[in-house]
Amino acid sequence: xxxxxxxxxxxxxxxxxxxxxxxxxxxxxxxxxxxxxxxxxxxxxxxxxxxxxxxxxxxxxxxxxxxxxxxxxxxxxxxxxxxxxxxxxxxxxxxxxxxxxxxxxxxxxxxxxxxxxxxxxxxxxxxxxxxxxxxxxxxxxxxxxxxxxxxxxxxxxxxxxxxxxxxxxxxxxxxxxxxxxxxxxxxxxxxxxxxxxxxxxxxxxxxxxxxxxxxxxxxxxxxxxxxxxxxxxxxxxxxxxxxxxxxxxxxxxxxxxxxxxxxxxxxxxxxxxxxxxxxxxxxxxxxxxxxxxxxx
Length: 296
What we know:
This protein is of the alpha/beta class. It is built from nine helices and eleven strands. The chain has one domain: Rossmann fold (3-Layer(aba) Sandwich).
C-alpha cells in the first residue's frame, strides 16, 4: 500500500499538483459538490449504528488496542450487536488480536463485508494489505478517504455499538472519525500509571472536550505486574497515575487492568483475555465500561 511516485513526478510540488489521483494511483476525495450522494450513503450507514465509541490515548504502547478488542468482545458477550473498527492505519493490530491476520475482505458488489469473530464484526486496513508486513505510507487526505470508506462502504448492518480503535495522538485519524461519524457518543481513554504517559493522555481528554465528545472514563492499563507463580503484584510503573489524572481532569475513572502474563499470551494467540481467565480486577473494570456505554 506504499505510494509509488509517477515517473514524471518528483514530489516537489505536491501542494500545487492538479492531479485528481494520489501518487499511488488511488483517487482522492472529490470536491464537495460531487460528494452529496456519498454523504447520504454515509449517513444511511451510520444511521443503523446506535452508538459510536472511540478508544484513544495520547500515548503509544499503553495497550489501547487490547482494551478496544476486549471491550468490543465484552459488549458482544452482553448480547450487544457490536462492530470493531481499527483505524490505526500504520500499525493495525486488531487482526492478530482476533487471530484474523490471514483473513481478507471481500465485497458483495455493493459493499465490503466485515470479517467476523464469533458474531463480532471487524474491519481493519490489515485485511486489505497484500502482506502483513507491508508499510502504509500515506498522507492525511488518503487516511481520511479510507476511514470514510470504512464507515460508508462496509456492511456494518444494525449495530448497538461500534467500537473504534484509534492510533495514538490527536491527529488525522481521530479528527477524521469525529468529522465523519458525528456525533461520536463517547470516548474511553487508556493510559498507563506513570507520569510520562498521563502527561500525553491529558491531550486526548482535551481533544474530546474541544470537540464536545463525552469522556466516558479512564482505564489505567498495566497497573501492577501480577506474578504468575505467587500472584503478588509489583508496581513496575507505579500505581494510581491514571486515577489521579482522571480526578484532576474531572472525568470518571473506570479502574485498573494489571500487567498479567496471561493477557499477553492471550493477545498473541488471538484470543481476547476477557473470554478466559481474565483477572477479577480487569473484569470489574470492563464491567464498568460496558455499564457506562449501555447507559447512553
